[in-house]
Amino acid sequence: MELRTLRYFVAVAEELHFGRAASRLHMSQPALSRAIRQLESGIGAPLFDRSSAGVALTPVGAVLLDEARALLDQADRVRVRVAAAAGAATLTVGILGDSTDPRATRLADAYRERHPGVEVRVRETDLTDPTCGLHAGLVDVALTRAPFDATGLTVRELRADPAGALLRAGDPLAGRDHLALADLADRRWFLFPEGTDPLWQSYWSGGEPREGPVVRAVQECRQAVLWNGTVGMTLVGHDPGPGLTVVPLTDMPPSRMVAAWNEGDTNPLIHSFVRIATAAYRE
Question: What are the backbone angles phi and psi of residue 161, rounded to the nearest 5°?
Fold first, then answer.
């Protein structure tokens, strides 16, 4: 029972979907299916119930998931301790500015508890760089939001949060229970500067060309709405601040919180960070 095979199993168990797990592992679905069947053959029992309704863990699979996570966590600790002994115990994490998500605090606590000897350097970036310096080679791993140009990167989704329209509290639309993008079609939106990742700009503009003030930071977005009556998008669960409100948008896909790192980077500090982040953001 190899660690690599256990990582395959954990990915399927967490995604409960062979296609998504294969994409997460950067391998083909048939190869992943073969690896899981070989694991089941070696154990002598099925790990998943496969049906037209989807994939579910069997009781044996649930036991193995707990044990596999413990083994992989221990393997991560070994790799990190070896990296520390080799003088490589520094991790640079890129995050978007205004990082008030309480799960980020939970992640920091968990990583510190797991790896007290690792120095974590945090680099905050504004909204013009969704990779938080990753494409520029300034960070090892980014804790950010998709979508963005992921060329040469590995991206792991941590959670998805509903998006809403950011409005002045006195806006005529502020009292609505929900809105559609069409309700905001004739409004001015805050925009990111020219040259910003087009996938990122398109998402936060509701997929349409817009006109309005240019902003770089979360606080600038809020001030543009507060002072000018501009509209834009934010997360439904975030406190917008005094004088502002958020109304859910029914036709916007959720905003995906992700961890991203350079494809093929085998740094154990990164992989341990991603595993801990996955747990912290799914609790």
Answer: -120, 135
Degrees, nearest 5: CA angle 255-281-146:
25
Burial of 142 (C-beta count, 10 Å sphere; 0-12/13-18/19+): buried
Average pLDDT (29-44) is 93
Strands 90-96 and 48-51: unpaired
> What average pLDDT does the chain have?
90
Q: Which DSSP state fits 172?
A: T
Q: Which residues contact 86 (CB under 8 A, 6 or more apart)?
A: none
- The full DSSP string for 229-281 is --BEEEETTS---TTEEEEEBTTSPPEEEEEEEETT---HHHHHHHHHHHHHH
d(CA 129, CA 225): 21
Tell me if 122 sits within 8 A of 171, measured CB to CB. Answer: no
User: What CA–CA distance (Å, rounded) separates 17 from 50?
Assistant: 10
Location of structure tokens 């690599």: 4
Which pLDDT band, with edges at 50, 70 and 90, does 169 fall under?
A: very high
From CA 73, how far away is CA 67, in angstroms rounded?
Answer: 10
Question: What pLDDT digit, counting tens, does each position of 51-73 carry?
Answer: 888 899 999 999 999 999 889 88
Amino acid at 70: A
272: phi then psi, degrees, rounded to nearest 5: -70, -40
Phi-psi region of 60 (alpha: psi -120 to 50; beta: other; left: phi over 0): alpha
pTM of the shown model: 0.75
Residues in CB range of 50: below 8 A, 6 or more apart: none
The pLDDT of residue 29 is above 80 = yes
pLDDT at 208: 93
Rounded Cα distance, 114 and 107, in Å? 10
